[in-house]
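Slide 14.
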Amino acid sequence: MVSFNSDIKPIFARYTACMKRVVLGDTQGTANLELDDYECVKRFYYQVQVAIHGYDEAVGAPPLLVKDGPDKGKPVKASHPMPPGGEKSRMDQKKIDLYDQWVKEGMHP
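Slide 15: predicted structure.
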């Protein structure tokens, strides 16, 4: 089982400081993105997932598909891929896969 504290938090460790300036919103309001905080990452899991898949098309990786709505099943387009810096800064595919697995398994702490 993939857990936030032992598996996911270390993936984001190098991006935590710079990403705290990012403000995300949902039905609960807005908040700074704190990648070292379980509740925050769980709350914004889909936005994070879309962002880390943001360079998929550029590098020929399998895309993340839209989960619902009129574009369901189509590749997701990230307006702000993560980490910043272009496709050469893309997160390692194994780390992206681990994050996807964490989401699929229910986002355990």
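Speaker note: Helices lie at 4-12, 16-19, 38-43, 45-52, 56-59, 93-104.
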